[in-house]
């Protein structure tokens, strides 16, 4: 198979669409879309998100040291995109989108009430990487709307309908159907 080189780029499929919730210096709830993020430790459970220093969320994170990550469903793709293109310096993003900021139970940070999955996080450390700072947060709690739980009581990705981002095409995607059972289908190749 012939492969074409695209050089060093931020290509990784898929990028999650994560909404970082913080409070600004005036106490106003703020939210920012970030696609540079994901789970980075299982013990302690931790997530990493990268934010440019010019962003209001960067300043909020450095001051508050607590944040949430809300995972939007497909029906909120417009609002999630808006969180990434408007600045919290001069815009009340919650008022503009009509979405509800809810104060976290364990952290001093807001989450998006309408989004089905929320992680409450306390900052563990930061890592400077070029124009971004990676914020690593310990996950103190995960909240999931009961409406997106499966019959087994676990979150169901088919009901959550999270958004994926394609950085090359600058487009959002949904997820398809289950392909196979993890830690199982590969056993067919074990000898």
Automatic annotation (TrEMBL):
It comes from Methanoculleus thermophilus. This is NADH-FMN oxidoreductase RutF, flavin reductase (DIM6/NTAB) family. GO terms for molecular function: FMN binding. It holds the Pfam family Flavin_Reduct. SMART domains: Flavin_Reduct. InterPro entries: Flavin_Rdtase-like_dom (IPR002563), Flavoredoxin (IPR052174), Split_barrel_FMN-bd (IPR012349). Gene3D superfamilies: Electron Transport, Fmn-binding Protein, Chain A. Residues 10-165 form the Flavin reductase like domain. Its cofactor is FMN.
């Amino acid at each position: 198979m012939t492969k074409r080189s695209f050089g060093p780029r931020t290509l990784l499929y898929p990028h999650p669409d994560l909404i970082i919730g913080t409070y600004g210096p005036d106490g106003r709830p703020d939210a920012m879309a970030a696609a540079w993020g994901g789970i980075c430790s299982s013990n302690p459970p931790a997530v990493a998100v990268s934010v440019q220093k010019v962003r209001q969320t960067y300043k909020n994170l450095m001051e508050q040291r607590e944040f949430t990550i809300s995972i939007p469903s497909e029906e909120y793709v417009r609002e999630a995109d808006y969180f990434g293109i408007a600045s919290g310096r001069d815009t009340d993003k919650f008022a503009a989108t009509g979405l509800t900021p809810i104060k976290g139970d364990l952290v001093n940070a807001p989450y998006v009430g309408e989004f089905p999955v929320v992680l409450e996080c306390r900052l563990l450390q930061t890592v400077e990487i070029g124009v971004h700072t990676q914020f690593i947060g310990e996950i103190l709690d995960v909240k999931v709307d009961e409406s997106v739980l499966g019959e087994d009581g676990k979150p169901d990705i088919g009901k959550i309908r999270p958004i994926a981002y394609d950085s090359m095409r600058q487009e959002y995607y949904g997820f398809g159907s289950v392909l196979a059972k993890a830690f199982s289908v590969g056993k067919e190749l074990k000898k």
